[in-house]
């Protein structure tokens, strides 16, 4: 700054809260405009159709077999385009699973629903480092499970509501007061059953509990409730809320906020499985170390107070991995040597396809392959399906299958 500039009287400074408030309102209005331009309110988001080959892959049958069913007119039929290409909606695919189960021999089941005695699986995606890929992982896992035929509930536990936004719910416009998970966890009379805050998504088989900033109340109210001894303790509250809807779902995927507060603690207490996302870089791994230490201490206290701390599985998932990066490879090797089988075999690679899809609030499962360089899309999808397939196998094992 020049001396002349220094001697100028400062422009009338506005109070920081006025300035920030203005920025927030302007930004919110612009974001809303941007969204309306992308998705006009009349054009509700719908899921694309799937090719015959994709459908066969999702069901787990040979593409030739699906073609034969279609040619012979057996079971749910595809739509046939002008060029003779067959395509299926996700509802058709689910109906095909049911058809195969009814008509086939009992040795293999295509509908993966829970059976008598199988517990609801609650998978928490955690780490207190922002940007470690929690939301991306949770969204793609939940959508994958829905595509594979599991009745899936995604829970957005992050007040920043990125998972909700990815599913078309902009927090400050579409999610009103008492319409987040906080409604089902709160300690006062305004508490609502979880079923009242669950919303459908445009993914058949995937429902969501959206988030907004209101979830922060839980961090403030829980210490007060602990102090006054009112209500159930925080570590049974999410369990209690889920119990009410458990018959409707096979798997719950929880996207946790980037802090180890009462929201995350409540999620960890309700979890049957824990997925820790980690970007393989020194600072991220050091931060994760702090997270693990704190988690261990806090959960130890909960366990002493009678909380149930048993899990089916716990895994580290390497995210935004760049195979050509030497230091990242060293970090992955280091983690594998430390944690062994607790690191998933497949990492999620860094891909412009994932990042670009995110710009239009979409996942790789929603975007059409035509919108990308094919090799980029294919590589990303393969990595994603490998990761999710590995998690699906853990889910099966949790139910004593496979
Ligand atoms: N595999 C990936 N390839 C490229 N970008 C990714 C990938 N995973 C996540 N990202 C991007 O990194 C950023 C942070 O990811 P996010 O899932 O929001 O992390 P978190 O929820 O832990 O804060 C987002 O902009 C996201 O689009
Ligand atoms: Mg997030």
Explain the overall architecture.
- The protein is 47% helix and 10% strand.
- The chain folds into two domains: 50-103, Multidrug-efflux Transporter Regulator, Chain: A, Domain 2, CATH 1.10.1660.10; 121-398, P-loop containing nucleotide triphosphate hydrolases (Rossmann fold, 3-Layer(aba) Sandwich), CATH 3.40.50.
- The chain is α/β, with parallel strands linked by helices and 402 residues long.
- β2 (79-80) and β3 (86-88) form a beta hairpin.
- The strands form two sheets. A seven-stranded mixed beta sheet has the order 6-7-5-8-4-9-10, sandwiched between helices.
- It has helices at 3-7, 16-38, 52-59, 63-71, 90-103, 134-147, 162-166, 171-174, 181-185, 216-228, 234-243, 262-270, 282-304, 326-339, 352-359, 374-398; strands spanning 50-51, 79-80, 86-88, 121-126, 152-156, 199-200, 206-209, 251-255, 273-278, 313-318.
- It is built from 16 helices and ten strands.
- The structure holds adenosine-5'-diphosphate (ADP) and magnesium ion.
- Magnesium ion (MG) binds at residues 134-135, 158, 162.
- Magnesium ion binds at residues 134-135, 158, 162.
Look up the CATH topology of the largest domain.
Rossmann fold
What are the secondary-structure elements, in order, as H or E?
Answer: HHEHHEEHEHEHHHEEHHEHEHEHHH
Please indicate the count of domains.
Answer: 2
Counted by DSSP, the helix tally is 16
Helix content: 40-55%
Unreliable parts: none
Biggest sheet descriptor: 7 strands, mixed
- Enumerate the distinct ligands: adenosine-5'-diphosphate, magnesium ion
Cα-atom radius of gyration:
23 Å
CATH architecture of the largest domain: 3-Layer(aba) Sandwich
Strand content: 5-15%
**Structural class of the helices, strands and pairings?**
alpha/beta
Q: What is the CATH C level class of the largest domain, in words?
A: Alpha Beta
Cα distance spanning the termini: 68 Å
């Amino acid at each position: 700054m020049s001396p002349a500039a220094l001697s100028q009287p400062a422009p009338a400074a506005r109070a920081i809260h006025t300035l920030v408030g203005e920025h927030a309102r302007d930004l919110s209005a612009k974001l809303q405009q941007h969204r309306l331009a992308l998705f006009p309110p009349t054009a509700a988001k719908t899921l694309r159709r799937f090719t015959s080959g994709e459908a066969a892959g999702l069901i787990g049958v040979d593409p030739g077999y699906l073609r034969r069913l279609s040619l012979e007119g057996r079971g749910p039929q595809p739509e046939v385009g002008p060029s003779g290409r067959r395509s299926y909606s996700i509802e058709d695919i689910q109906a095909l699973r049911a058809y195969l189960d009814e008509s086939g021999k009992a040795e293999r089941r295509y509908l993966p629903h829970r059976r008598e005695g199988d517990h609801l699986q609650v998978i928490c995606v955690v780490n207190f480092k922002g940007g470690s890929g929690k939301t991306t992982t949770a969204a793609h896992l939940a959508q994958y499970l829905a595509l594979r035929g599991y009745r899936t509930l995604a829970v957005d536990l992050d007040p920043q509501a990125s998972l909700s936004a990815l599913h078309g719910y902009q927090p400050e416009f579409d999610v009103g007061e008492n319409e987040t998970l906080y409604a089902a966890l709160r300690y006062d009379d305004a508490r609502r059953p979880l079923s009242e805050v669950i919303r459908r998504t445009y993914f058949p088989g995937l429902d969501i509990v959206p988030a907004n900033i209101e979830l922060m109340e839980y961090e403030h109210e829980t210490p007060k409730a602990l102090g006054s001894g009112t209500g159930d303790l925080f570590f049974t509250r999410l369990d209690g809320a889920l119990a009410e809807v458990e018959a409707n779902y096979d798997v719950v995927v929880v996207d946790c906020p980037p802090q180890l507060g009462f929201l995350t603690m409540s999620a960890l207490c309700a979890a049957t499985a824990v997925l820790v996302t980690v970007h393989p870089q020194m600072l991220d791994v050091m931060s994760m170390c702090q997270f693990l230490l704190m988690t261990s201490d806090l959960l130890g206290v909960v366990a002493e107070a009678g909380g149930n701390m048993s899990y089916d599985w716990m895994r580290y998932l390497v995210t935004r991995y760049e195979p050509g990066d030497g230091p990242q490879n060293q970090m992955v090797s280091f983690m594998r040597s430390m944690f062994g089988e607790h690191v998933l075999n497949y990492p999620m690679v860094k891909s412009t396809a994932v990042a670009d899809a995110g710009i239009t609030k979409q996942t790789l499962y929603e975007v059409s392959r035509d919108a990308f360089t094919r090799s980029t899309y294919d590589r990303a999808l393969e990595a994603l399906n490998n990761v999710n397939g590995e998690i699906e196998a853990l889910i099966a094992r949790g139910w004593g299958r496979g």
